[in-house]
């Protein structure tokens, strides 16, 4: 094994602010409305060094590995959905929260439901802006991004090919996102300009404010399932699948156990497809005791 | 959209050392032997705050999303490999670097080739140790981990089920890792204790030092392909697939273009399966100009 110091590149400068962005953007885009309140400023001292690109953004937005992981997920979703379309399924992959059972398909037309941010498009415009300025995420800037970001958000690797393959198979792509209904035109234009095709508010684009559900997408999912036979669903956050799983207030390992328990565990990769997003979200939480179980603790003999 | 400051958790304290760990561990475990040399210490000032769990570790080792992304990849690999086994393929998914063509299968027995670290097992023992101490990765500690980590490394989510399904389909799992040949017994025991079954040095476990290839796995891949019909290959780093792709010295977006160009792009998710690893590796690199193309630059109107 090589000696790291001989071969290492300089580590990026510490950036508490950079991490603040990640955590804050997490909470806005993934809308975890139950997290305990503490101002970021109290925990994120301004660094001496210039801000650096957060690690998660380096991996997701910059690396071959991040792009390949993304393409693999689009490929798996497309193969699954087009196979399902050939033999119409009896049930949608959307769960009726009243019964805990999938919504029946009947004779409804076929659809696949996607989150938008970090599931169809990468929001590299504002992510760069926040990180470069060492600024916290702020809702005012994000609101401007929804209105004016057209042409600056990029389709995720494999997304354009996936949308084309789904439409060719008679499956309509639908977006269910926590972007604001007040900015519907901007989000329609942003998705179209990224090359993803036609998403129309109220028909194939569902936004926060469309109903009384707030940041929970469950009510919008129920509306979609009442009109469509949903053969696949995709997102980067648990709330994109079932709000019951979101639970940012749970300790990470308990939250993981909840989302991967039977019977719904069988849906991951089989109807439900999760995109890696180590940039923001309730997934990026936890101290040493939260992440590392006691039975795995190890130390070298000095 | 909620106001982040009302709902944010405290951001983790800045940790240049934490980032140092990531970069250094990257270089050791992924063995990018061509990176320019600069001591990490020069770029990673000791932070005032206590070390925190690096973001990438929070996502990968702690979150539901990280576990689900991992399980999805094992599921896709298992489906692909078992389908291939039913109709013996003509070619391995290992490329002969002399010809750029896949190695023929002939009548060789079926196998699937995996990297070990962050592909079969999570090395949470030493990762916790490095992060908790705010210590840089060091080869001496890692060498002790290879020798004494048995029982402290955990099988990745979905790995145990995948090994069982592959073996049941007559496909032998093989590990090709840059752990040291000198520590073969420790690595055999670590994989077995994690519940992954039998990996034998020289038969189904290939290590750095087995040949003159050093940290390049190409020569070991050629040896494996001479004995086995390899129906699937998996890793978390480009070097786990073809050393030609590793190229940590390339700017990130050029490296991404190289690894996702035809004809090999068709193999990702179809024979080659990449696991998300935002914790370490040559994937975690780049400044603002490396990651964010000029045409995507955006700023709010103040």
UniProtKB/TrEMBL annotation, chains A, B:
Keyword Signal carried by entry: yes
One Pfam family linked to the record: Acid_phosphat_B
Annotated coiled-coil segments of the chain: none
Keyword terms: Signal
Signal peptide: none
InterPro entries according to UniProt: Acid_phosphat_B-like, HAD-like_sf, HAD_sf
Keyword Protein transport carried by entry: no
Name this protein carries in UniProt: Acid phosphatase
């Amino acid at each position: 094994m090589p000696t790291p110091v001989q071969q290492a590149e300089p580590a990026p400068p510490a950036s508490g602010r950079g991490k603040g962005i990640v955590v804050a953007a997490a909470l806005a885009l993934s809308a975890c409305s139950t997290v305990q309140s503490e101002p970021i400023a109290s925990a994120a001292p301004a660094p001496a060094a210039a801000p650096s690109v957060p690690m998660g953004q380096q991996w997701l937005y910059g690396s071959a590995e991040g792009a390949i992981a993304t393409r693999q997920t689009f490929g798996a979703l497309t193969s699954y959905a087009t196979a399902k379309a050939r033999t119409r399924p009896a049930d949608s992959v959307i769960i009726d929260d009243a019964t805990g059972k999938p919504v029946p398909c009947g004779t409804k037309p076929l659809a696949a439901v996607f989150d938008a941010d970090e599931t169809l498009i990468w929001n590299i415009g504002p992510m760069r802006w926040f990180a470069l300025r060492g600024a916290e995420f702020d809702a005012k800037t994000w609101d401007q991004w929804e209105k004016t970001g057209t042409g600056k958000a990029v389709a995720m690797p494999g997304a354009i090919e996936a949308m084309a393959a789904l439409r060719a198979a008679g499956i309509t792509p639908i977006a269910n996102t926590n972007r604001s209904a007040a900015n519907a035109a901007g989000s329609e234009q942003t998705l179209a300009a990224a090359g993803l095709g036609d998403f129309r508010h109220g028909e194939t684009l569902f936004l926060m404010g469309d109903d009384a559900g707030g940041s929970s997408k469950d009510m919008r999912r129920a509306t979609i399932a009442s009109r469509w036979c949903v053969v696949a669903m995709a997102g980067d956050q648990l709330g994109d699948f079932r709000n019951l799983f979101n639970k940012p207030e749970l300790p990470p390992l308990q939250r993981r156990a909840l989302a991967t328990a039977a019977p719904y565990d069988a849906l991951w990769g089989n109807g439900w497809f999760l995109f890696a997003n180590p940039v923001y979200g309730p997934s990026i939480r936890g101290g040493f005791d939260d992440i590392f179980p006691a039975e795995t603790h190890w130390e070298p003999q000095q």
